[in-house]
Amino acid sequence: MEKAEPLYISYRESFSKNFYMPQSPIVGAPVVITEVLCARDLELLSSEKPPQNVILHLNEFLKVVDGEGEELEPLLSVLKRCGRTLPVFYLDKIGTACKLASFLDYHRIADAQLCVAYDQRDILHFAAQRMPLLRGMLDCRGERLPEDIADIISEVVGNGAVNVILSPEHCSGDAVHKLQQRFVHVNCPADESGIDEIAARGVNGILSSDPSACYAFYEKFPENSFLRRHNLYAHKGFQNNGMFSENTITGVVAAAEYGFDGAEIDVKLTSDCQPIVMHNLNTKGLFDCEERIIEETPYAELAPLRRIGFPEEGVDLFEDLMRAMKKYPDCPVLIEFKPHAKYNRVEEMVSRVGRILSDPETQSHCFGIMGALTPGLDYVRKQLPGLPLSHCESVKLAPPQNRVEAEDRLYRIAFLTAGWVAGYNCEDVMINRTFYEYAKMRGLTVFPWSRSWTMAPSLWENNGVACDATFLSGFDSWTTDHGDMYLHLPVKLSAGEKIPREIEAGAEIFPMGEASYRNGSCSEIGTELLVLSGEWERGESGGYRFPQKGAVRAMLSLPLELHFGDVYRIYSQPFTIEVK
After folding, report:
1. 341 versus 197: which is more confidently predicted?
2. One-character DSSP codes across 33-84
3. Is there a contact between 227 and 30 (Cβ–Cβ < 8 Å)?
4. Distance of alpha carbon 279 from alpha carbon 41, whole angstroms
5. Residue 353 near residue 267 (C-beta atoms within 8 A)
6. Using CA atoms, how far apart are residues 13 and 547, in angstroms rounded to an integer?
7. Which helix (H) or strand (E) holds 174?
8. Which of 149, 396, 485, 486 is the most exposed place for a label (fewest CB within 10 A)?
9. What is the DSSP letter of 461?
């Protein structure tokens, strides 16, 4: 270890990074990452527009090395230039991980990430135990991955990662969405396929040796542009404006059939240790019966109860729900563990839930969420290492208004969630785009919940404006009671055959695309063009004309209006039109 004064006074201070933030109208624009493969890449750290993350390959002497393994600089001297960049340490030996752990402890560095090659993921598993504050990244480039990309999720999460790096050939839009549905951030190099093509696949991060080119691309878009699909989770199952009761098999299955990206449920234990799908401490308000404390009542006494307003619905077993969801693998279930602090039966709950999830007849694509008993979530991680986890926070906090306040929140969450792969689940009034921008640099999945209260379901007429605002904040995902108000919005835009790939100079075109919806349907729809390169002008009939010969690079752009007048846009993959 190099003899020097510690780099930071405190772990908190290591979170103080003045990241370069482009003036981009893209909501949640991909993080710009540079992988140091030569000396020139290190110079970018001191540039006016540095990368937001930097991958540093380390040898056993804690020297930063290039792509050939030749030493470039000592790690400490490189880190002194990372005041605007989050370091990602790439390891290939367990011995290096041990030395790095001592180095980071001495220099009080907590704000960083670890990366290893997929075939050396045991190193990440070891390193994550030694350095629990650091999130992990698996480099899957060059690997023969499963045909269904979702099959690698338990491997990723079980080894302490929240990020993956995929090769462009594996990084399809569908693969990206499946991983993001399960809280895994996806990064991809853009040097081969181009920044526009990789960004349009909805990735979380772009590896590029030219950060300025990425930032310039991000600045081409109009306000409220979305490149990633908005993951929509049905809070307590799909209630569909009162059509279904909360936390029931019926409502969760409905979420899958209506095309949600997932469904959130609450799990409690009865007195005889049966996991049931229930939010409240007692039966008051939900069931037409004498009030009973759930955790003091055996399941046999709860089973006959009927829900007020839903005479066909009762108290559903968690096992029955997961069996029903087996045939909906593309609709993962978010399991909020709800042991009351008075009973605190985390061990029994995890044991029972784990046994059910290991049954091949139940759905295994799940998440774990826990709030007030956050230390219990660390127990969940140890018992169910392949389950993505999240810290749920319902304490009213004002949303961060600047970088310092955002970093304070992130520092606190880092220590609350030390040792496990984490998302952050809180009420949407507690966070905003400022917080999200700084969270995404750290690989933290942010998925708020909105407008739902025990005994008082939210009303659209009261909360619709706030729900639209949450949607436009572009968090990784969103759990809401009002998902029915967003199901009609298309989630994908494709360039149809009516877009000519060759045209005569001066010819006028009217772009058409194919919009895909959550229920699996598609429709042809008139769109606009976002021209990325090449000359264009409006035609006499309102279409697009290209007066000069050459190649025009463009994307289809579809403006979509929300309920209270706000407009956002989705885009197709980029394409080239040859102007003859």
Report:
1. 197
2. EEE--SHHHHHGGGSSS--SEEEEEB-TTSEEE-TTS-EEEEHHHHHTT-TT
3. yes
4. 51
5. yes
6. 55
7. helix 173-181
8. 396
9. H
Q: Quickly tell me which residue has 């739902």 as its tokens.
A: 452
pLDDT band, residue 156 (cuts 50/70/90):
confident
Residue 1 binned pLDDT confidence (cut-offs 50, 70, 90)? very low
Region for residue 443 given its phi and psi (left: phi exceeds 0; alpha: psi -120 to 50; beta: otherwise):
left
The three-state secondary structure class of 16 is coil
Q: Could you tell me whether strands 86-90 and 53-57 are parallel, antiparallel, or unpaired per DSSP bridges?
A: parallel
Percent of the chain with pLDDT over 90: 76
> CA-to-CA distance for 564 and 297, rounded, in angstroms?
46
| Residue linked to tokens 């002497």 | 61
Rounded distance, CA 96 to CA 402, Å?
36
CA dist., res. 81 & res. 157, Å (int): 31
Kindly state the tokens that stand for 242: 């009162």
Instruction: Please give the backbone phi and psi of residue 203, each rounded to the nearest 5 degrees, phi first.
Output: -70, 160
Q: In what order do the strands lie in the sheet with 492-495?
A: 492-495, 512-516, 522-526
Helix or strand or coil: residue 576? Answer: strand
User: Which residue, 454, 377, 363, is CA-closest to 413?
Assistant: 377
- What sections of 384-445 are H helices per DSSP? 403-416, 433-441
Q: What is the mean pLDDT of the chain?
A: 92
Cα–Cα distance, 499 to 491 (Å, whole number) = 20
Helix (H, G, I), strand (E, B) or coil at 221: coil
**For the CA atoms of the chain, what is the radius of gyration?**
25
pLDDT, tens digit, 9 for 90 and up, residues 7-56: 999 999 999 999 999 999 999 999 999 999 999 999 999 999 999 999 99
User: CA 35 to CA 45: how far, in whole Å?
Assistant: 11
Q: Are 407 and 438 in contact (CB under 8 A)?
A: yes
Relative to beta strand 422-426, strand 445-446 is: parallel
CB under 8 Å to 505, separation ≥6 — which residues?
546, 547, 548, 549, 579, 580
| Residue 576, phi-psi category: left (phi > 0), alpha (psi -120 to 50), beta (remainder) | beta
Sheet strand arrangement including 537-538: 508-509, 544-545, 537-538
Return the amino acid letter for 238.
F
Euclidean distance between CA atoms 314 and 283, whole angstroms: 11
| Tokens (6 digits) for 303 | 């089973």
Question: Can you read off the two tokens belonging to residue 313?
Answer: 């619905």
Q: Among 114, 36, 108, which Cα is nearest to 71's?
A: 36
Residues paired with 285 in a beta bridge:
none
